[in-house]
Write a structure and sequence with these properties.
Chain lengths: ~120, ~110
Amino acid sequence: EVQLVQSGAEVKKPGESLRISCKGSGYSFTSYWITWVRQMPGKGLEWIGRIDPSDSYTNYSPSFHGHVTISTDKSSGTAYLQWSSLEASDTAMYYCARHYPWDLVLVYWGQGTLVTVSP
Amino acid sequence: EIVMTQSPATLSVSPGERATLSCRASQSVSSNLAWYQQKPGQAPRLLIYGASTRATGIPARFSGSGSGTEFTLTISSLQSEDFAVYYCQQYNNWYTFGQGTKLEIK
């Protein structure tokens, strides 16, 4: 069974750094891109970017490029989303997701990680 | 960037009735269009991909149609568990989501 299990909720202050994780299991981790999606409180879904775990090649939405970094650790089957300096506007739920073998649509989703940034 | 526009923002329908949700792309996305359902406190759930193919386990009352720039999600006979927020998403050029349609009980 394919599973994406994300790290727990985080409470941080503005300016702090943070890395959240998404661990894949039940499939070959390096065979599928991992995508990150943001959902601000009461708002819709926004694509942040994606990474190919086989070679760490990444693509970012222009809205997020330079503000976050996506990475992976192949040995542990884990993808990461990190910030070097959080802002209050980063407060949101963050989801990781994976696509079908035959299509790029996002079919498997993690449970989400809630990030709260407050002074 | 491809902009996805959903309408209406909120749709009020009675259980047992049909619901029709629309999604428009700012440029052609071919058939690379998906629909997701999201309930409070849950991750999105894939309903439809390739504009019209139901994902595994999705009931037949959900159907999708369209291609290019105009797409529709139809729920033929609303059940209580169908009241949720629905998002369309293009995956022809990276990913872009619509702003969502909230389907509420009339």
